[in-house]
């Protein structure tokens, strides 16, 4: 399933992620998945939330540098080798993965993927019966 992800650029200082997490929480917005990467000067918080438009407005209102990008979210069995098989399907199709992050709950794992070609990657995954999922699917866990 194609979903929207926010990327928030944060100064690489203690407490910056805390500020964003508290702000969104106070506004009743749930972060369903996130990843933080950093270098010496800044960090990038990539997150999927239950109310993307509201989160985008709130973060911009509070002067955060934030962008929006489409990503794919899919279900992957939470067992040895499953992710490798899934990535092999994507690699064999010639799709390049710019970045990804994952989490698991019980028998299922969930993977957020940012490929260089969203449509092609989604078609390849659906042809191999991969389960593309939506943000709301997380609340059924």
Notes on the structure:
By secondary structure, the chain is α+β, with helices and mostly antiparallel strands. It is 30% helix and 41% strand. It has four helices and seven strands, in the order E-H-E-E-H-E-H-E-E-H-E. Strands 1, 2, 3, 4, 5, 6 and 7 form a seven-stranded antiparallel sheet that branches. The model has no long low-confidence stretch (mean pLDDT 87). This is Amino acid-binding protein. It comes from Tannerella forsythia (Bacteroides forsythus). It holds the Pfam family ACT_8.
Question: How are the elements arranged and paired?
Answer:
Blueprint: E1 2-11, H1 16-26, E2 31-38, E3 42-49, H2 52-61, E4 65-77, H3 82-92, E5 97-105, E6 108-115, H4 118-127, E7 131-132
Antiparallel strand pairs: 1-3, 1-4, 2-3, 4-6, 4-7, 5-6
Organism: Tannerella forsythia (Bacteroides forsythus)
Pfam family, one: ACT_8
Protein name: Amino acid-binding protein
Instruction: Return the string of H and E elements.
Output: EHEEHEHEEHE
| Bulk shape | elongated
Instruction: State the CATH topology of the largest domain.
Output: VC0802-like
Mean pLDDT: 87
Largest sheet: 7 strands, antiparallel
What is the first-to-last residue Cα distance?
Answer: 17 Å
Assembly of the depicted chains: single chain
Which CATH C-level class of the largest domain is it?
Alpha Beta
Strand content: 35-45%
- What share of the residues lie within helices? 25-40%
The number of distinct helices, counting runs of at least 4 residues, comes to 4
């Amino acid at each position: 399933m194609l979903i929207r992800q926010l990327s928030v650029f944060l100064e690489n200082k203690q407490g910056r992620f805390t500020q964003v997490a508290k702000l969104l929480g106070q506004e009743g917005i749930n972060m369903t998945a996130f990843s933080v990467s950093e270098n010496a000067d800044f960090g990038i918080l990539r997150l999927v939330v239950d109310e993307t438009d509201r989160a985008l407005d709130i973060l911009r209102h509070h002067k955060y540098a934030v962008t929006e990008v489409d990503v794919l979210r899919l279900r992957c069995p939470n067992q040895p080798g499953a992710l490798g098989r899934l990535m092999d399907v994507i690699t064999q199709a010639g799709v390049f993965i710019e970045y990804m992050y994952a989490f698991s709950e019980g028998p299922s794992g969930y993977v957020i993927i940012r490929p260089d070609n969203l449509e092609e990657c989604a078609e390849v995954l659906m042809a191999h019966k991969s389960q593309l999922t939506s943000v709301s699917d997380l609340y059924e866990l």
